[in-house]
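User: Please predict the structure of the protein below. I'd like the answer in structure-token form so I can feed it into my own downstream comparison script.

Assistant: Understood. Taking the following sequence of 132 residues as input:
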Amino acid sequence: MISFLIFVFVMSFTPGPNTIMAMVSGQNHGIKKSVPLNLGMLGGLVVIGALASIFASWIQSNETFVLVMKVVGSLYLAYLTYHVLISVPGSEDEEAGGFMTGFLIQMTNVKVYLYFITGLGAFTLAGIWGHI
């Protein structure tokens, strides 16, 4: 149980792009205007978790899928890095973003996919039985 709690702590509290976006939205627009964005991110998290749970054994056994996810994740992080590099302070949009913005951003958050793939493979019976 301790290893599971450490995994959850590390994966939950290391900042990803969505964590930073939620923080900046709250700082720039206030908590009330940022609620729809955060609810959208929560909705995306639930959908990804449900899909990962349904397809957990297939995902774990399909090495090609895991490799593709690693490549896509690396490209996504490079894309985000490029946009941070070229961004100009003070040029952000005036709106906080709505539910669909948060949902779609979460659906492209590779860290969440890896979180569920790793967690389900390591800490569920499907993952345990697959390694026995």
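That's the full token string. DSSP finds eight helices and no strands in the chain.
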